TrEMBL record:
CDD domains: ASKHA_NBD_TsaD_bac. It comes from candidate division WOR-1 bacterium RIFCSPLOWO2_02_FULL_46_20. PROSITE patterns: GLYCOPROTEASE. The lineage of its organism: Bacteria, Bacillati, Saganbacteria. GO terms for molecular function: iron ion binding; tRNA N(6)-L-threonylcarbamoyladenine synthase activity. The gene is tsaD. Binds 1 Fe(2+) ion per subunit. This is tRNA N6-adenosine threonylcarbamoyltransferase. GO terms for biological process: tRNA threonylcarbamoyladenosine modification. Pfam families: TsaD. The keyword Transferase applies. Fe cation binds at H111, H115, D299. It is found in: Cytoplasm.
Length: 330
């Protein structure tokens, strides 16, 4: 089975070709980061227009790199939520056109679920497992009971972790996107220089990152002089605080639910501090830890195609009325 997958939920236009769900023949990603950087964040209307400009060339490039023709496709998969409605619609319309013209199955995919399945592209997590799904728009702990069967154990009550990174970076005038910038600065700073409170670290599985963001703002506002050394210490201490909360709750969830395996997913899974801490602390507790390679952490179509493979095996396909659902839940 050859699957063409399309991902346009936010500001990356991506198309991938997969064989039997896990062999990635191509995975092409066109990012809009440089375009949105001058605005300090993603402008939804402009993002959808950029998707329109590049969607067809990206699909063709994915097919060419995989040495596959349209006639070779057995199905087409596409993200239909959650995400920016305008962006989602571009990918959905392209997928519907391909499905209709070739008379092949259309598979609508949940973006959050697809991030979890990035772990299946080069690994094979043992079910059940606990997945920390952390991105700019979502932060949640999910128990993956089986393929397609999930239990959300906890989620953020306010800002997602990635959102907090971006907001802190914006306040400190570090640039956009904030996550990679803070991660880079944190490597040069002392993570124990400033003792920020670990929000809700002992309270259940839910998260809250609005308070730590405010704490950074208040600390910075009281300073009379801010040198480069102090700035990297703020970045390192902030990142350490967020990472400690995320890893502590993930490991606790695994222990409480008697899961031997934990996995990381979502855009923030590219954060070097989080990757290192989860791997080290998880292994210290005797857990098997799965972390996707960096090229599969951010939004990409390969993870969409992988999930679609498992959905097809369960007979789950969509019709041409497939909608774009901005707030689609896991």
């Amino acid at each position: 089975m050859i699957i063409l997958a399309i991902e346009t939920s936010c500001d990356e236009t991506s198309a991938a070709v997969l064989k039997d769900g896990r062999e990635v023949l191509s995975n092409v990603i066109s990012s809009q980061i440089e375009f949105h950087k001058k605005y300090g964040g993603i402008v939804p209307e402009l993002a959808s227009r950029k998707h329109i400009e590049v969607i067809n060339p990206i699909i063709q490039e994915a097919l060419d790199k995989a040495n596959v023709k349209f006639k070779d496709l057995g199905a087409v998969a596409v993200t239909h939520g959650p995400g920016l409605v305008g962006s989602l619609l571009v990918g959905i319309c392209a997928a519907k056109a391909i499905s209709y013209s070739l008379n092949i199955p259309l598979v609508g995919v949940n973006h959050l679920e697809a991030h979890i399945y990035a772990n299946y592209l080069d690994q094979n997590p043992k079910l059940p497992f606990i997945c920390l799904l952390v991105s700019g728009g979502h932060t949640m702990l999910v128990m993956v009971k089986d393929h397609g069967k999930y239990k959300v154990l906890g989620r953020t009550r306010d800002d997602a972790a990635g959102e907090a990174f971006d907001k802190v970076a914006r306040f400190l005038k570090l640039g956009y996107p904030g996550g990679p910038i803070i991660d880079k600065l944190a490597k040069e700073g002392n993570p124990n220089a400033i003792k920020f409170t670990r929000p809700m670290i002992e309270d259940g599985y839910d998260f809250s990152f609005s308070g730590i963001k405010t704490a950074v703002v208040n600390y910075y506002g009281k300073l009379s002089v801010v040198g480069s050394k102090l700035l990297v210490d703020i970045a390192a201490s902030f990142q350490q605080t967020v990472v400690e909360v995320l890893t502590t709750k993930t490991i606790r969830a695994a222990k409480d639910n008697k899961c031997e395996t934990i996995a990381l997913a979502g855009g923030v899974s590219a954060n070097s501090g989080l990757r290192k801490a989860l791997m080290e602390k998880g292994q210290e507790q005797g857990l098997v830890v799965h972390i996707p390679p960096l090229n599969l952490c951010t939004d990409n179509a390969a993870m969409v195609g992988c999930l679609a493979h498992y959905l097809l095996k369960q007979g789950k396909v969509s019709d041409l009325k497939l909608p774009a659902v901005a707030s689609l839940r896991l």
